[in-house]
Amino acid sequence: MPKPSLLEQLNYIAKEADSQLESAASEADIESWRVAYLGRQGRLTMLLRNLSSLPIDDRRVVGLEANRVKKLLEEKLNGRQQALKEAGYSRSLLEGGIDITLPGRPMAIGRLHPTTRILREILEAFTSMGFSVLEGPEVEWEHYNFDALNIPSEHPARDMWDTLWVDWADPSSQERNMLMRTHTSPMQARVMENNEPPIRVVVPGKCYRYEASDATHEWHFYQVEGLAVDTGITFADLKGTLYQFAKRIFGQDRQIRFRCDYFPFVEPGVDMSIDCFSCNGKGCRICKESGWIEILGAGMVHPNVLQGVGYDPKKYTGFAFGMGPERIAMLKYGIDDIRHFYTNDLRFLNQV
Ligand code: PHE
After folding, report:
1. What is the pTM for the complete model shown?
2. Is-contact 242 321, C-beta < 8 A?
């Protein structure tokens, strides 16, 4: 039998390589296939080495054909590698139990804390009436928290504020007593000390009291203080300002009511109630059947306080008020326990 021509050998190798590649089942199989046919010592490469022994015309024909086969095999190799990769990918998806048709996880979107929201609402109500917003220290001197507010030591009114003392100085020393402020009212004195009238400020901030917490009491909570001092400020100004505030937070139909109350730093002192937004004053569970809900304390700045910061009480008058934003939020949003504001339970926080 005559030796098969190079062309025939080429054809034969191409067919054989083709069928072998079909049955290559792994990346390793494919690699040994590549070495066997296309590698340096591979069958196709070896065959091409014999080209030089051919007459020049045959050389061109066989050369062309050999290159065509080589290119074809390389393309098939690529295709096979790709197919194997994809098969492996979908297999690992299945085996890994990943269901790519499931909807994606929802994105966690942050939101404002209920306290932040109500604080912003309250502050906006006052800034729209020309008040500025100011903040002060949570750790405070006894002087500003009490004495400057017409509450000298030994005054029984100090019992109204159960105090967390930070530092209790030796009475014989010059040092001062330090505490966690029990209300934002110390800022009244600080603002007046550092400014000349006219003054119109609201002061949001954290306060602390030494007491057990329950559904309506926390040992730390927010307050918003308000202060307006100028010539000719009267109780009517206090009334008008707080009336606008109440309507803005609780609705245009709200009525307000003032009753006498006692705070050493105001005279007269009052507490302000709104008519119950739930029953419109008829009496229900929320207003404890009274038709009214108390929302803040207020009054005309006491002459002693004005004098203490160097203002002439004959020239200047002013009003002040203080409220608990958590209490406002509880009323407005129907929240039944003040402790929710501080337990960081997402089920509560997500409702806002
Ligand atoms: N600081 C008072 C309190 O904590 C509230 C208040 C502020 C009352 C201003 C009158 C005027 O109870």
Report:
1. 0.71
2. yes
114-349 belongs to CATH 3.40.50.2300 = no
Residues 6+ apart with CB under 8 A from 287: 276, 278, 279, 281, 293
The residues annotated with a catalytic role in the active site are: 161, 183, 209, 223, 266, 320
Domain boundaries, the chain: 6-95, 114-349
Query: DSSP secondary-structure letter at 50?
Result: G
CA of 339 to the centre of ligand 1 (A): 21
Please list the pLDDT of the chain residue by residue as tens digits (352 residues): 455 677 888 888 888 888 888 888 888 888 898 898 888 888 888 887 877 887 888 888 888 888 888 898 889 889 888 888 888 888 877 777 777 788 988 888 888 999 999 999 999 999 999 999 999 999 999 999 999 999 998 888 888 889 999 988 887 877 889 999 999 999 999 999 999 999 999 999 999 999 999 888 899 999 999 999 999 999 999 999 999 999 999 999 889 999 999 999 999 999 999 988 888 889 888 788 999 989 999 999 999 999 999 999 999 999 999 999 999 999 888 888 899 999 999 999 988 7
Q: Is the CB of 185 under 6 A from ligand 1?
A: yes
Instruction: Tell me how far the alpha carbon of residue 161 lies from the centroid of ligand 1, in angstroms.
Output: 11
d(CA 82, CA 74): 12
Q: Count the neighbouring beta carbons within 10 Å of the beta carbon of residue 331.
A: 20
Determine which residue's CA is closest to atom 7 belonging to ligand 1. 322
What residue owns the CA closest to ligand 1's atom 3?
A: 183
- Please state whether beta strands 178-180 and 165-167 pair in parallel, antiparallel, or not at all (unpaired): antiparallel
